# Entry
Amino acid sequence: MSQVKLPDLSHYWVPFTANRQFKAMPRLFKAAKGNYYTAMDGRQILDGTAGLWCVPAGHAREEIAIAVGEQLRTLDYAPAFQTSHPLAFEAATRLAEYMPAGLDRIFFTDSGSESADTALKIALAYHRVCGNPLRNKLIGRERGYHGVNFGGVSVGGIAGNRKAFGNALSGVDHIRHPLDIAKNAFTKGVPADGGIALANEFEQRIVTLHDPSTIAALMIEPVQGSAGVLIPPQGYLKRIREICDKHGILLIFDEVITGFGRLGTKWGGDYFDVMPDMLTCAKGLTNGVVPMGAVAVKREIYDAFMENSPTGAIELPHGYTYSAIPIACTAAITTLNIFAQEKLEHRAAGLSAYFEQAAHSLKGLAMVKDIRNIGLVAGIEFESVVGKVGAFAFAVYLKCYELGLHVRYTGDIIAISPPLTIEKHEIDRIFNTLADAIKTVAAQGETGLDANQYLKNEQQWAWHQQVTI
Ligand SMILES: Cc1ncc(COP(=O)(O)O)c(C=O)c1O
# Structure
């Protein structure tokens, strides 16, 4: 076996990663094409997660590479404040056309986190510009993920992402998340019952507690992704929309992962036939290749800023050096062209029944506690080993990597969200590999849960033995 020379691993602080563990067992990709990565040791790894949910059109799309390369040589940068460039307006127009009708004023950011914080700031500033400065509370949802900036972390509801950072924003509360395994385990698609009652709790508990006239906005993901694929029951989002309307609360959908065809529709809101007042996106907007996010707002919201701000004033004192940089705009326009040509949302919708069937084939395997799916997303939740929450899913994740499949784990949940270019035989491979990994880890008992034990076992970690640091 040939040895692979790895770079010096000491300087780079790897995000959202157990660095000591990772550096003892690094997993590095050196190339990607279509639905596959090439690992450092040359193995092909099937991408079961479209990168971090961000590569819907498959890797290394030639048309994006060419467009970005040409753009870098034509106009590399133009100041984002007080000047701009035509591509920024073209990208906004194209994105507005892709948005649900009416959400056609676009603010560009560089990430999903920035989109979340931008949307929250627009909500607060909107009420102020409309003469309601006391509407300044923000509501999110338990287990919601809105990125890592202070607004998103505060409105988000993932305990592990909050506890290290103190109190974050004040004036924030959370509604309940929709997962009810006791009632809905192994539901195929959207759970049938409980949606209206759960949504009504928002009004009965949170809206009443805070006094509706103090609440600026509710921000939620149509389907909660990062916390492990939590799918709202039927009727839930429509009822949430009604409650927001009744009380003048802005509804913000964070569509950073549900956007761009993931559920088989352009947007998650389309799937549930509910339109928000603001929509945040990122990731798939450029097919993952250039950092870019966006907030789409209803025209009335934009108009309120234009009509109510003093003449000559900057209506929204907010923006980023890299808002709508030329290469991001080019990448976004080219990605939207690919979506238009290849109808990737329709492709996802067409594959979703096959994907659902394949995902639910894992039912009955040891440790599998729940399987949830919608569009081209699936979450497989495992029983947690006492005192070792997350260890089983992590071991399955490592085993999948060894077997040539990249999946994502969070707690004791494995999430699958392949590129929308995935083929049926690759869907089979994803779930067959997962089945093998689950069976192997379950059969190994406690030893299987100890990553360090793997490292000591040369045969099991043959791929790892090929690399030297
Ligand atoms: C719903 C949601 N919002 C926001 C984000 C943050 O995006 P980024 O990592 O680009 O800041 C994510 C990332 O996974 C997400 O899933």
